[in-house]
Amino acid sequence: MSSNDNCVKCNQSIASVSHLHGAFCKNCFQVFVIHKFRAAIGRTKLITNGEDVLVACSGGDNSSALLHLIQHGKSESAHRKLRFIPQVLYVDEYGALEVSSEDRMAKRAEILQVLIAAGFPVYVSSLEQALNQKRSETTARSVFVKAITSNIPLPPNVETSELKSILSRISSLTSLEDFIKQLRCQLIVTIATELGISKVLTAENCTKLAIQVLSCVAQGRGSQISQSTGFSDST
Q: What PANTHER family does the entry give (predicted)?
């Protein structure tokens, strides 16, 4: 892509994004991505009109983009509005990192402010709760809370210490990442089940999907590839 190339869509603005279908300016690329997102949702026909869908958001670039796409698809100005009902879940994973309680609380509040501002119901959990699922079944204690404000208390220090103790025994970085991923997935499924939701949207990109596919094959889990990748748009 040359620095002087015009956008293939509007043919007026200077192109800033190179894509398989051509070079786009920023505005036209956003329109293109939004259209492709809605088309992917509609083409699969896995999500029905009026169905509740749990949207897993970490506050990172990928999940923020996913939330933006859903926001646009639900807005009054959308040409064809998304018909499902999004409910947002934020799983706090800072318990697995060396982050102080003050910094963790500040980061969590910052992310929750963005999620709540999206206008959808927001639920909050933490990676520590994945270890408490069996205890929660016997004590009727929920592993998540609904976020009305961004000031949601952190898990008890003893639970964070227990999580870090378990993670410290895993020597391989690949195994550590896989273990955290499995904890997160189990927690998301548990919360979705408790909310009575059968569909979950996660923010995956081509790089993540490729890593998951190659990891499954390398570990002899090729039969699990379809479960690991779900449905995705090839465009």
A: CYTOPLASMIC TRNA 2-THIOLATION PROTEIN 2
